């Protein structure tokens, strides 16, 4: 049935997968296996469509509690090289993530008007915990990309789950904060009357309210605006989610822009996995650059995940004050996430 070399590669692949190696289960000769969890949702659907265009993805797996078979069927008509499969319900979550290189978690409820992020965490925390547990069992070497809110608490929670299963690697767990960068680039580009693609600005901290810190002093090209204008723009970036919820009259949150941002992050991550040089991209990861043990800063990537954390950019006086406040808020969110797992023991 097999030639000698082909048989060896086949057996090696199956050995790695069946023994749940901490190394990626794909063969270097092949492109990547990517799973989108929550694929029939408002973020998951457009994100999955964007993923179909990526020539580096060979196997795209979609999972959700319902409706995902139709999404997979729809995407299977797209003229793209990736194969696509839909898997549904809790009984198929392990199958969906098995031997994946990257798992993107978008599953969970969207925040509704008046809902605090703590209330959102009570619901989404359990959803993400189940997914991360499946990853720990079936794909311990995967890059875990968390989109589900509240990111500030969900990511530390996920780290604790992976630690319990003794497969945690801080270089492979990410909270996506790219939407804050995307918003900053768009709003500044509009103000300067230039393309957002020409704007470079680090957005550090977390992914909620005043934990989002656009470092305007490091914006390129420089933002020559009044302090009042800069402060107004910072608030708009920090409250971008509320702006969209209001515009959608409480019937939805940021979905299309979030899908765009998540795809941008995964694209950079896949470049790193391929061994290509990557642009810097901010993400919420385990960190020692501040007193908050999870913090978003500019990162570069390689085959192991994070190649280098580039740390804090230079901050002006007002940014240093904002940083102190953000760190205190982040520490509370991190504690919330960690305690959620400890209480489940």
Blueprint of the fold:
Layout: H1 4-18, E1 32-37, H2 44-52, E2 57-64, H3 68-75, E3 83-88, H4 93-97, E4 102-105, H5 117-138, E5 143-146, H6 151-164, E6 173-175, H7 178-192, E7 203-205, E8 212-214, H8 227-238, H9 240-247, H10 256-273, E9 281-286, E10 294-302, E11 305-309, H11 317-344
Parallel strand pairs: 1-2, 1-4, 2-3, 4-5, 5-6
Antiparallel strand pairs: 7-8, 9-10, 10-11
Helix pairs in contact: 2-10, 5-6, 5-11, 6-11, 7-8, 7-10
Written account of the structure:
Strand 9 (281-286) and strand 10 (294-302) form a beta hairpin. The N and C termini lie far apart (48 Å). Strands 3-2-1-4-5-6 form a 6-stranded parallel beta sheet, with helices on both faces. Strands 9-10-11 form a 3-stranded antiparallel beta sheet. A two-stranded antiparallel sheet has the order 7-8. Helix 7 runs antiparallel to helix 8 (227-238). It is of the alpha/beta class and 345 residues long. The protein has helices at 4-18, 44-52, 68-75, 93-97, 117-138, 151-164, 178-192, 227-238, 240-247, 256-273, 317-344, and strands at residues 32-37, 57-64, 83-88, 102-105, 143-146, 173-175, 203-205, 212-214, 281-286, 294-302, 305-309. It is built from 11 helices and 11 strands. It has 2 domains: 32-177, NAD(P)-binding Rossmann-like Domain (Rossmann fold), CATH 3.40.50; 178-334, Lactate dehydrogenase/glycoside hydrolase, family 4, C-terminal (L-2-Hydroxyisocaproate Dehydrogenase, Chain A, domain 2, Alpha-Beta Complex). Mean pLDDT is 91; it is low at 1-29.
């Amino acid at each position: 049935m097999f030639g000698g070399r082909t048989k060896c590669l086949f057996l090696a692949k199956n050995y790695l997968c069946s023994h749940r190696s901490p190394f990626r289960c794909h063969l270097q000769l092949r492109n990547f296996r990517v799973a989108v969890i929550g694929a029939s949702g408002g973020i998951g659907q457009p994100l999955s469509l964007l993923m179909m265009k990526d020539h580096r993805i060979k196997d795209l797996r979609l999972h959700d509690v319902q409706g995902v078979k139709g999404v997979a069927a729809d995407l299977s008509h797209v003229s793209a090289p990736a194969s696509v499969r839909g898997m549904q319900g809790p009984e198929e979550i392990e199958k969906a993530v098995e031997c994946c290189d990257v798992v993107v978690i978008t599953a969970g409820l969207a925040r509704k008007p008046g809902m605090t992020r703590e209330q959102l965490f009570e619901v989404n925390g359990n959803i993400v915990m189940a997914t991360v547990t499946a990853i720990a069992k079936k794909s311990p070497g995967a890059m875990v990309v968390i989109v589900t809110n509240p990111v500030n608490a969900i990511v530390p929670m996920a780290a604790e789950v992976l630690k319990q299963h003794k497969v945690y690697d801080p270089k492979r767990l990410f909270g996506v904060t790219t939407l804050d960068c995307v918003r900053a680039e768009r709003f500044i580009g509009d103000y300067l009357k230039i393309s957002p693609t020409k704007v470079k600005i680090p957005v550090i901290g977390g992914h909620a309210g005043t934990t989002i810190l656009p470092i305007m002093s490091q914006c390129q090209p420089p933002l020559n605006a009044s302090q009042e204008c800069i402060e107004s723009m910072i608030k708009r970036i920090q409250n971008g989610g509320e702006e969209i919820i209001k515009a959608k009259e409480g019937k939805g949150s940021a979905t299309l822009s979030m899908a765009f941002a998540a795809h941008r992050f995964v694209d950079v991550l896949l470049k790193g996995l391929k061994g290509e040089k990557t642009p810097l991209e901010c993400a919420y990861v385990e960190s020692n650059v501040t007193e908050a043990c999870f913090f978003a800063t500019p990162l570069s990537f390689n085959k192991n995940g994070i190649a280098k954390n580039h740390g804090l950019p230079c901050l002006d006086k007002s940014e240093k004050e904002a940083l102190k406040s953000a760190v205190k808020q982040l520490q509370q969110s991190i504690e919330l996430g960690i305690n959620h797992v400890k209480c489940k023991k």
